[in-house]
Every structure is written in C-alpha cells, then in structure tokens.
Amino acid sequence: MKKIQRLTKRLGCILLAGVLISSALGAGKLTPHASAAAAEKGYVYYSSEDGSLYRAPTAGGTAQMISENFEGSYLNATSKYLYFFDNEDTSKLQRLSLTEPGALISNFAGDKDILFYQIEGEFIYFMDDNGVIYRSLADAADDTQIKQIANNADTEFPGFSVENGRIYYNVLKNGTNTWAASKSRDGSGNVQYIAQGAIPSYSYIHPGSSTVSVMVDIKPAETYYSLNSMVLYTLPVNGGNPKAANAKSPLDANATYSGFWSNDYYIYNKGVTVDDNDDYVYSKSKSYAIDKSGKSFQLNQSAVVSLADMGGNKLAYVGSNGKGYISTIANGKVTSTKTLALSQVTNVYNLKNGTADGQIIFYASGGAYAVNANLSLTKLNGVTWDNSSIFNDVSGIYYYNAEDNQSLYKMSADGKTKLKLTDGPVSEIYTVTTK
C-alpha cells in the first residue's frame, strides 16, 4: 500500500513565498559578512539568546531591538512594517511598525482568520478561512486599503502565488468542485480556469520568462493512495489558454511531491514511496525530468533530494545516495554527469548574487562548498547547514559564527569576503530583506 505525503492544508507547513529560498520543494531545512563589496541595502532579522527580536543592516551598522520575548513565525518585512504569524494563534497575522519607536504589535485585517499570505511588490495578498482573497498596500497605515480580489477560494488548498499580473490559486467552481485558476492580481476581470483539480501549494506554481507552469493534482480528494494524478500545465504569463504536457500520462503523486522545478524541467522521482513515518523511501527510485511538451528522460540512477538550476543546460543536484552531481542536458537527454568529491551531501542552492546564473553552493558533511566556473570546489569556512541561511534574491550567506560567540556574520557567495554584523549569541536568523 502506497501512501501520499500530502502537503499540509494548513499554513504551518506551507512555506511563505519570499521568506525562504524556493529552489527545492521538499527540502527539510529552509531557514536560514557583508564584505567590503557588499553595498546592498537591507536588514537581517534575528533573535538573540534571550528571545528578543533584532534587526541589523546587511552592510554593517548598529543593530536595533524590535521586540522583547518575541513569539512569531513566517516573518516578512517591508520598509515600514514587519508581518508575521503569532505562534500562539497561527490564524492571526500580526504587524509591527519599524518606523515608530515603541510601537505595539497589532492584528492585521482585524479579526479575520488568515490561512496564507504573500508580499509581492508593494502589496500584501492574503486568504481568510472563508475563501476570500484580499490585497492591500503593504505599507498602508491602516486596514482601509484592504480590497477583496477573489472569492470562492478553496480553503483546503490555500496556497497561492502572484506572478507578473496574475494570481494563481484554487477555486471552488460552482461552490463544490476544486479547480486550479488564475485572475488579475487587482481583482478585475473574470476567473480563468486552468484545470479541474488542485494546485497542492504555491511551490507548484513556477514562473518563466514567457510562461507560467503549474502542477495540478487532478484527484485532490485522495489523500492516502499515491495515484497517477499530477498533470503539468503551462500558460502565457499574462493569461491565456493552458496547455497540458502529460494529460494522457499523469505523474505519480509521491514521485511529484518529492520533486523539484528547474528552469526548463520538472524533476520527479519515479518509484519513490512513503514509510509509516511519512518519510520518503528512495531505495527503488530513479530521477526523471519532464519538459513542457511532456517529453521525459532519466536524469540519474539515484533519486534527487535537492536541486538547483545552474543555467547553461546544467543542473546541480543531490542524490538520495548522498552524492553531489552536476549534469549537462542537451536535446532531451543527459550528455555528461560529474560526481563531486564530497561525502554525505544533503542540499544544494543557487545563491543569486548579482550574476545571471548565480553561485551554486552544496552542503555536505564537511560544511558548505561553492562551485567554481571549472566545477572545482571552494570550502566556505565556518558555514554549516546548522548555522547558516540563504534567501531568495538576497546576496550572501548569513550565519552565526561558532568561533566568535555565535555572532552574526555575512559571507560573500564565493567565500572570499565576510563581515561581522553583530555580537552574539544569535539563536535564529528569521529573514533578510533588501529594503
């Protein structure tokens, strides 16, 4: 009997867009110097050993205490406000002013029970437990800017994503049947239905330069058996007719839920199962890639447990055997694969550090390693899986230094420069912003 590790239908296990890096759908930890070259403006939000919440400039400077005895999660900041969920009541979205000294924490959107939120550009979008999606200027002084943009959203699958001019979400068509859909992000116009079924979470919505790809579970009511029920759809970024890549041969749910997006492919693990502890079992699994036309090919004899797109037809990934790989793909097949000289590899990320392709970083038993242009490795001394954080669209690696009283540091992506940001001890890095 095969069992689906169904992505949770509550916020608690749905990663908020923009808070954590999204190179992997199933990665276990996605938490989380600036150098002389790091002129980027922004703040890193972290907690001290006594539980107080601080922020410090990413380019160096004086840290500011924001709140004592902080109890919050899923933090996201604008230039004026810090948004987060109260750990005691995860349906209440909280807001704290970053510009008014001594400001008190307050509920955002009044008494609404909020299942999911996303900050995109200057707006905050959120869904309540009645299936209504709203948006507001994220820096608005009060709730008067809140506007309803969609209703009849399926609260069993609350994750959504705002991409370009549209919001992608799940809607109850005729009040009963779940459909993947999109709508103008300002609420104007009609709902565009993509396919009957559910987008499992926002992570299954993948924007490209001209199209948006969406993975839809066409049998979302089944939460125990792993059925062949996952269909890849693509549609124009500004809305238009969706095209199914594999309508006649849906992918297995476990294979898909354990998979990852790349720029041109969806990587899935054929043959993966789930044990009684809801952990993936990869012993009989191999990794495959499917493109937007529905063509599939085998990537590796091992399953993939973490993946990052390097650009230039190269994929960096971690096999379920604990090895790190870099494969080159051409004409719908793997033309070469390099096995890296690392042991017990756990994760790989593409740190966008101002270059088009970014910097690939592997985490292994010996620490963190940057991949050089010639595919050799440079160890990032002091950075480990347990003490570091990487965030989308933010340059550098943030970590607390065990050799310096757990003080907060930023290291450049190539490991060549670093800067101490604050004295320790730091216990957790929450998020980093560029504002």
TrEMBL record:
Keyword entries, A-Z: Signal
Name by which UniProt lists this protein: Prolow-density lipoprotein receptor-related protein 1-like beta-propeller domain-containing protein
Domain Prolow-density lipoprotein receptor-related protein 1-like beta-propeller, chain residue ranges per copy: 36-172
Top-level taxon in the UniProt lineage: Bacteria
Species annotation: Paenibacillus helianthi
InterPro entries the record matches: LRP1-like_beta_prop
Pfam families in UniProt: DUF5050 (PF16472)
Position of the signal peptide: 1-26
